[in-house]
Write a structure and sequence with these properties.
alpha+beta, three-stranded mixed β-sheet, globular, two-stranded antiparallel sheet, 135 residues
């Protein structure tokens, strides 16, 4: 990833849109092996870490991490591990939570998971701060 280019675009007021695709390592022209679909959560975490972002916001189709049908406003690393082990976190949410921990371990200060309203409201979603996380 070209962090210098991303910084240049961001500093210029542009919002880069990055598709989570990667080039395969096999010979060019081999059917089905030229392009790889990278997990978007992992790609976002890696980009946020490379930029040493203050916050990584995962936009989802849910308002945040839910436990017993209620949105949890904040989670620690230990609580994330417990949700995964207990089965309360499932499917795509597990990927987001694991990517959140990875981003925090690599310098991102906080992660938030929420729906599209979290873009304009910093109080929406589930906050996962660096303090208290598994770093």
């Amino acid at each position: 990833m070209n962090v210098r280019l991303l910084r240049y675009l961001l500093d210029g007021g542009f919002l880069p849109v990055i598709s989570p695709l990667a080039r395969g390592t096999s010979q060019p022209g081999t059917p089905g092996s030229d392009t790889l679909n990278v997990n978007g959560d992992d790609a976002a975490a890696a980009i946020a870490a490379a930029l040493v972002a203050d916050e990584l916001l995962f936009i989802s189709d849910v308002s945040g991490v839910t436990v017993n049908d209620a949105i949890v406003s904040s989670l620690s690393g230990d609580e994330i591990e417990a949700l995964i082990v207990s089965g309360d976190a499932t499917g795509g949410m597990i990927a987001k939570l694991q990517a959140a921990i990875m981003a925090l371990r690599h310098g991102v200060e906080s992660v938030r998971i929420g729906d599209v309203t979290a873009l304009s409201d910093a109080g929406c979603g589930t906050q996962i701060p660096l303090a208290g996380s598994l770093v």
